Amino acid sequence: MVPSRLLSLGPRTVPGGVGRWTQVRRWPPSPRLLSDSCGDHAKHQEPPRKKLLSEKKLKRHFVDHRRVLVCGGRGGDGVSCFHSEPRKEFGGPDGGDGGNGGHVVLRADRQVKSLSPVLSRYQGFHGESGGRKNCFGRSGALLYVPVPVGTLVKEGKEVVADLSCPGDEYVAARGGAGGKGNRFFLANENRAPVTCTPGQPGQERILFLELKTMAHAGMVGFPNAGKSSLLRAISNARPAVASYPFTTLKPHVGIVHCEDHQQIAVADIPGLIRGAHQNRGLGSTFLRHIERCRFLLFIVDLSEPEPWTQVEDLKFELEKHEVGLSERPHVVVANKIDLPQARAALPQLRARLGPNVIALSAATGENLEVLLLRLQELHSRHVGAELRW
């Protein structure tokens, strides 16, 4: 326990020797020291900084476009030094060159389905500086950035790469060249050079990545036409479905296995609305996912009044987005045939669009075999012909 006479906050004087008085300060310590100690304590107790909210959210959602800053690695510096050895007074220059900086390479990976894992900035590995005894510095390793298959790489408005096949690579940013050591400048006119050069900075670019879904067939329709339910019925894909109206917010790709071991990729494109080419609703954000599809499936809600107008509106939106897109090979699929009012409208729909309209029910599985046979026929006719060429 501290004695009461020592709890005085002010200074007091005590004898400091013969004829001298010394002023001393008792407890507590000075405010400066107290604030410093509290600051150190607060520094140790500071919680770790959180990640950016946008980065955390993007990793959980489907992302089909991204702006990326890529920087190549810096080259290592050259070294200026001279050989030193006993009994060898004039050893000459032996400074090695620096290593080259590493490149940043975009690689199409089948396992990556979205651009959400792609960060907003990538820095290549730097090269090491040179050393004595003509030792060159180690070059920076290549930095590979996996992106989904079907990624377009743009610089400004110019398309610089199309990574449409698994394993395709594109050097997004080149590393800088390594500097030269003084050994490089050795010549008959200059037997003892002291000159060395620093490494060059890497290339720095701003790229825009845009994903276009790679699939053989694309299902196009208005919201709540039953596209997701149909994809669940013919493939192992599991997009969200429910008994109440809502629309899919991201494309889903399912693989349809045929009897002759063929695999057909079918994409469920989010529902379009009238005026989508003017960027209404989801707009052109998902219209571009249809551009790579070889043939289309127009999904029509047969329970709606005048269902044939849905096909006309869908073709109009596709043609406004890209000329010739609506003229690709297609099949009209009338869904929800299990409903009584839908079955009554089927004859009038076939009278307007032709007898090749496939009427089925994704909920009960009625007439799904007819659709699978037609998919296999279209795949063999259009995709198989390209493989033979």
Report what the structure shows:
Residues 38-53 have a biased composition (Basic and acidic residues). The protein is of the alpha/beta class. Helix content is 21%, strand content 22%. It has helices spanning 31-45, 53-58, 227-234, 284-287, 308-321, 340-353, 368-388, and strands at 12-15, 21-24, 65-71, 104-109, 121-123, 143-148, 151-155, 158-163, 169-173, 204-211, 217-220, 252-257, 263-268, 295-301, 330-335, 358-359. A 6-stranded mixed beta sheet has the order 12-13-11-14-15-16, with helices on both faces. It has a 5-stranded mixed beta sheet with strand order 5-3-10-7-8, with no helix packed on it.
Short description:
The protein is an alpha/beta fold. It is 21% helix and 22% strand. Strand 14, helix 5 and strand 15 form a beta-alpha-beta unit.
